[in-house]
Every structure is written in C-alpha cells, then in structure tokens.
From TrEMBL:
It comes from Hirundo rustica rustica. Keywords: Metal-binding, Zinc, Zinc-finger. Residues 8-21 have a biased composition (Pro residues). GO terms for molecular function: nucleic acid binding; zinc ion binding. The lineage of its organism: Eukaryota, Metazoa, Chordata, Craniata, Vertebrata. Residues 317-332 form the CCHC-type domain. This is CCHC-type domain-containing protein. PROSITE patterns: ZF_CCHC. Residues 1-44, 289-318 are annotated as: Disordered. GO terms for biological process: virion assembly.
C-alpha cells in the first residue's frame, strides 16, 4: 500500500520589525524533513524531496503586516511538471513561460532553485541557462551588482528572514527565467540545420560531422561551444538510424553523457550491424560454393524395350471377323459389295 505523503508546513514568520522566528535549517532548501517517518528508503521515498518556498501572506496579531510562510513543494511535483514542460532546445520561450508559471509567486532560496533546475534540465542545459541569464543581467545592470554575485556557484546562505537576502532570491529567479528564454540562439535556419536524418549506411562519425557542418552553415553556432555541443548531442541521438537511436536512448542519463561517449556507443551498434551483414553474406557464399561442388547426376536412362518372343499373331478381318486376311482383302466384303451394285 502506497504511503501517503503529508507535507509539513513550518511556522510562519514576519519581517524584521517583529522578533524573528527561528526556523530549523534542516527544513529548508530541499532537505528531507526530520518529521518524515524513518524506515527503509524506498524508491518512492527517495524521489520525494521536500522544498519550502516562501509566499507573501497578510499577517494578523498585535503587529499586522505582510509576512511570509513556507508553502510545501516536493520533488515529485517538479518531476510531474517536467513531463509537460517541453524541450528547452526546441521551444525555449515556451519552456520559460511554463517554468515561470510553475514557480508562481513564491520566493525560493538558492538551494531550492538549484534543486529544481537539477530535476528539470541536464547539466549542459543548466550551464547554457546560467550563461545566458548572467549575460542579460550584466547588460541590464551596467552599474552593478554583477551577475556572479546574484547567481553564485556556491551556496551564499541567504537568510529568508532578511529583506535584502529575499531580494537576492527574487533576482536569481529573474535571471533563471531570462536565461531559459535566451539559452538557445534564435537562428532563422536552426530548423534547416537539423532537418536531416542519418542514412542507414552512414557511419556515426560521418553523421556527426554532417551535423557539425550544418550547424555552422545554417545557424552560425560554434559546434564546440557549450550551446553547440548540447544541440549536437540532442540531434545526434534523436535523428540517428533506428537501431542506434534505440540503443542510445536506453543508456542511463544519456543527456548528461559527453558527445564522445555517445559516439563510441553508436559506433559499437554500427560495427555489430556491419559484422552481422558480413556473416550473412559469407553464409550465402559458402552455400553457393557447396552447391557448385556437388557432382552432377546423369539423366535417368530409359529402360530398353523387351523384344516380344514367339510367333506373330495372324490378323483378323474387321469385316467378317475371320483370321488370315484384312478387310481390304476380304472376299465376303467384295462379294457383298458386288451384290449391292447389281441391285
């Protein structure tokens, strides 16, 4: 029987004008709540990771105002959303809009946003999003602060009870959404660059090289750049010949594997296919040679007719039935015909 997950809501807190409420660190930033029942770690429980983004709420009490409460969100919800999110490389604008709607009005910590990005995107896609978002932020904020301060690589330990830190959290979310929107170059011929499929007799190396040339020719994207590598990897797998595509898609987390590793795996499938083809041809040739070496059989001889021994039988007349003469010599026939003529 499936265990029902009951999200835990930490107590609310209010801005600095009121005494801040301490919130246990283990209940923040994607950590598993301490109140979750202990026991064997099943696959279902391992996937359910609790997140607690903040939401503005009017607060009552002796000092009314705007406060913030944590709204439960688990990693299972994020994985369910990913099914309908779409593909970043094919529809970055649509993905950005849907992610923005999914995040809603909540405020997320650095750790929570990293956890969500880790579920929704591959490592290469996350790097594409970060570079694009930071580039746009720096272009829009020439006077600072710089984007690497807004999206640090290490946990900055922002305090959700600190107004300035909450501002950093909101800016980070903005950078992420902008990065998703601008992660993929908007080349006019990007579809033309990938409007082909691998031919059956084309080696994986030749197929990848053709993709590289098309990418440079029609989109202007550098194939060796992180963006180019991500585009090539997706198209290399999706547009490969059927047996190669099925093998690559069965690899665990193939999206996170390097292009060189995928090429090696594709080459193995191609070589096995060629070896099987050679073996089949060899079997046909051996069978043909063996058939040619068989001695030819002479045609069956017709047995000679046996000579009939003994005296020949005397023919009988067809007219009178007496033996010893034929019809044309039959005297009875001649006599009867003479009588008929006289009459």
């Amino acid at each position: 029987m499936k265990e029902e997950e009951v999200p835990l809501i930490p107590p609310p807190y209010i801005p600095p004008q009121a005494p801040p409420l301490e919130e246990p660190e283990q209940n923040r930033a994607g950590e598993i709540s301490e109140d979750v029942p202990r026991g064997p770690v099943t696959r279902q429980r391992a996937r359910q990771q609790n997140l607690y983004p903040l939401r503005e709420m009017p607060m009552g009490g002796p000092q009314p105002g705007i406060g913030f409460i944590s709204v439960p969100l688990n990693s299972g919800d994020v994985r369910d959303f990913k099914k309908d999110m779409g593909n970043l490389l094919e529809d970055p604008l649509g993905v950005a809009e849907r992610v923005d709607q999914f995040l809603g009005p909540n405020i997320y910590t650095w750790e929570e946003l990293q956890s969500i990005l880790g579920i929704l995107f591959t490592s290469e896609e996350k790097n594409m999003i970060r570079r694009a978002g930071m580039r746009i932020w720096d272009a829009q904020h020439v006077q600072g602060p710089q984007a690497d301060l807004k999206w640090p690589l290490q946990n900055p330990n922002w305090n959700h009870q600190n107004g300035e830190h909450r501002g950093h959290m909101q800016d980070l979310r903005t950078i992420i959404i902008q990065g998703i929107r601008e992660a993929v170059p908007r080349g006019q011929n990007i579809n033309k660059a990938f409007n082909e499929r691998q031919k059956k007799e084309e080696t994986p190396t030749e197929w990848l090289e053709r993709l590289r040339k098309n990418l440079q020719l029609y989109s202007g994207v550098d194939p060796d750049s992180p963006v180019g590598q991500a585009l090539l990897k997706t198209q290399f797998v999706a547009k490969s010949w059927e047996d190669i595509r099925k093998k690559l898609e069965k690899l665990d987390n193939w999206q996170d594997r390097g292009l060189d590793e995928l090429l090696r795996e594709a080459q193995k499938v191609y070589v096995r296919r060629e070896e099987e083809s050679y073996r089949k041809q060899a079997r046909i040739m051996v069978a043909a040679v063996q058939e040619g070496r068989k001695p030819s059989r002479p045609p069956p001889k017709t047995p000679p007719r046996k000579k009939q021994g003994g005296p020949r039988e005397t023919p009988s007349c067809y007219y009178c039935g007496k033996p010893g003469h034929l019809k044309r010599d039959c005297r009875q026939r001649i006599k009867d015909e003479a009588v008929f003529k006289e009459d």
